[in-house]
Hints:
Blueprint: H1 5-8, E1 14-20, E2 25-33, E3 39-40, E4 43-46, H2 51-71, E5 77-84, H3 87-90, H4 93-105, E6 110-111, H5 120-126, H6 147-166, E7 175-179, H7 183-195, E8 198-202, H8 206-215, E9 220-221, H9 225-230, E10 235-238, E11 257-258, H10 270-277, E12 281-282, H11 285-288, H12 291-297, H13 305-313, H14 315-329, H15 333-354
Parallel strand pairs: 3-5, 3-6, 4-5, 7-8, 7-10, 8-9, 10-11, 11-12
Antiparallel strand pairs: 1-2, 2-5
The protein binds nicotinamide-adenine-dinucleotide.
Nicotinamide-adenine-dinucleotide binds near residues 150, 180 and 203.
Amino acid sequence: MTLGVFERGTGHEQVVFGYDRATGLKAIVGLYSTALGPGLGGTRFYPYASEDEALDDVLRLSHGMAYKNALAGLPLGGGKAVIIGDPAVAKTPALLEAYGRFVDSLAGRYITAVDVGTDAADMDIVATQTKYVVGRSAAAGGIGDPSPYTAFGVYQGMRAAAAHRWGSESLAGKRVGVAGVGKVGHLLLGHLLEEGAEVVITDVRQEAVDAVRRLYPNIAVAADTDELIRTELDVFAPCAMGGVLHDGNVDALAAEIVCGAANNQLAHPGLADALHRRGVLYAPDYLVNAGGVIHVADELHGYDADRVRQRTARIFDTMREVLTLTEKENVTPLAAANRLAEERMAAGAPAAASR
Ligand SMILES: NC(=O)c1ccc[n+]([C@@H]2O[C@H](COP(=O)([O-])OP(=O)(O)OC[C@H]3O[C@@H](n4cnc5c(N)ncnc54)[C@H](O)[C@@H]3O)[C@@H](O)[C@H]2O)c1
């Protein structure tokens, strides 16, 4: 038997189902919390096997966005939307317009953006029906790729973790393994090399490795992520897919710090405890990879690159705050980060505005 929204007991503030008969739109918006402001989070367009699966996903993702936005210091709550269907077949301009009207009907409690299965061109269509959308194309007044800010934020989080672990934020001379050198990973390694770190990379796509090698001919390359995990590293930076650390490889990890851009790096939350017990400092992924959402959220206020850079640089301070709490309360960095986000949500918008 499947459970209804209330029976699931996830604590969401509001869950709204949207259906459009003419276009076949089936969408769900999940709002976990609007305590700090409107819920911001992307629209995932995905061929869910069932309505139940879609509901689970939107509840999980909107919960995650609430924590991420709160820790990023944004005056925004946590929301997310899913559209049920195969985007390759079901995504039509008329359906996206209907979706835009659905978002608009929430009168600004939810602000949408891109996610898996949607892109800037789709947001341009959504924006013809509602102003509650960010992540539009540059041609339509959007602000483009968030990856440079995501990479910069991960770099700041890594420096804060280094300061906590080694007494100096400098990564010069440290050996960092970057798994996945796509949009974020290759920019992250640029920051690292500039500071004098030694970097080892891996990627499943040879062309991604070749692109890095063209810029940095002497870079060391590991055969795959598991080899990189076993390599003598100071920092392991997962910048590819989720679930990279799992029960089968966590004990082989040689690095003292894990800090990267990938979402959901741990296959299950219990691994945060396993890493902590082994003395590995795990920088919560949703804290350090928030540069992208900070960038996209700024579109709401008339984009200002300096403000985005300053806000992203604060990931350093938040990471330090989380690690101080970790020591004080003897909890994992993930538990400390969650606690800080919950405190900020409980304090609500006035406290957020005075930060
Ligand atoms: N782009 C952003 O601003 C942003 C923001 C927040 C979070 N993230 C997360 O960061 C991660 C990287 O994002 P991106 O935008 O750089 O994506 P991307 O697709 O540009 O790069 C990912 C890279 O990882 C490689 N890869 C895939 N599977 C791999 C594996 N098993 N081992 C090694 N390499 C593998 C891919 O070939 C690719 O080069 C993703 O998990 C993404 O969700 C990105």
